[in-house]
Amino acid sequence: MIDHIVLFRLKAEAADADVQALVDALHAVSRVAPGVQSYRLERDPRLRDVNDDLALVARFDDRGAFEAYPSHPDPSRSSPNTRLCFGGEALRAVRVRVVDLQRRVI
């Protein structure tokens, strides 16, 4: 099992409609990706200024399912995620942090 965690910090001028378009596009990717056990994408409620703006947590069956998931934050890829995060100047992410965790059964 693989947990994929992505934190997005967006430019301050990102319009709410553009952020919602990003959320919708990421949810669309999760619906077509095989092997996704769970998928959660939430906007930060801005309780602290140091927090990022969006958090995505996806759980995959295995490494193969993870590798088939088309949302790696690499601007050379052409998924909806990268087009919105890296293609539009207004919504361009200031920072994208990624952590992948593999669960091991002991």
UniProtKB/TrEMBL annotation:
Source species, domain of life: Bacteria
Domain Stress-response A/B barrel: 2-101
Pfam families noted in UniProt: Dabb (PF07876)
Record-linked SMART domains: Dabb
Record InterPro entries: Dabb, Dimeric_a/b-barrel
Stated name of the protein: Stress-response A/B barrel domain-containing protein
